[in-house]
Amino acid sequence: MAVSLLIRLLFWLWFGGALAAGHFLILQRVSALALPALTLFLAAIPVLAYLRVEAIRTWVDALDLRALVLLHVTRFTAIYLLVLHQRGEVPRALVVPGALGDIIVAVMALPVAFAPLADAARHRAIVIWNVVGFVGLLLAQFSVARLALSAPVEVRGLTQLPLSLLPTFLVPLLLASHVVIFARTGRAARP
Questions:
Q1: CA–CA separation, 76 vs 189, rounded Å?
Q2: Taking residues 119-147, what's their average pLDDT?
Q3: In the predicted model, what is the mean pLDDT of the chain?
Q4: Over the stretch 114-127, which tens digit does the pLDDT of each residue have?
């Protein structure tokens, strides 16, 4: 019970910090290339907590894998990015490749979680879905880094709310959940 409360508290503190960073435009004070690095750093924190702290690992491992998959339905936020691109507020290079991949992964999460599958078939579906989703997020991070190097002004939209929640909260959380899913499915596959 105490672990659950602690994890929830840390989650909301992280979200509050991400909101504050966007509200006070803190990300505009760092280099554009720092955004993808910050995202990876923030993703590493919950992963390390999962790998190193047994109480956290036990709590996370008690969650149904389908709940971790359904977390990725939040990737439908990519539709908002496409709308912003259509309005001319966000550049194509920042949005289109990653957004389309995110929408596909969000759509795939629904049948992976809800389809009436046998345990072995669901396990395979989760592994395949997880590989696709993880690679998609890594490619999106690569695109942001490439764009930050070639045209730093293009990633400026990610430094203020609501888009600042992507590099400071949502994407790190999704990356971390992919790593946890890899760890759990890898352990389940071992005899």
A1: 30
A2: 93
A3: 92
A4: 999 999 999 999 99
What are 137-141's contacts with CB under 8 Å, separation 24+? 137/171, 137/174, 137/175, 137/178, 139/97, 139/98, 139/101, 140/97, 140/98, 140/101, 140/102, 140/171, 141/36, 141/39, 141/40, 141/171
Please state the rounded mean pLDDT for residues 80-92. 89
CA distances from 18 to 26, 46, 168, 175, 176 (A): 10, 15, 5, 16, 16
133 vs 153, higher pLDDT: 133
Which H or E run contains 123? Answer: helix 119-150
Domains in the chain, number: 1
Q: Which domain holds residue 81?
A: 2-189
Residue whose pair of structure tokens reads 């730093």 in the numeric block: 152
Q: How far apart are CA 83 and CA 42, in angstroms?
A: 27
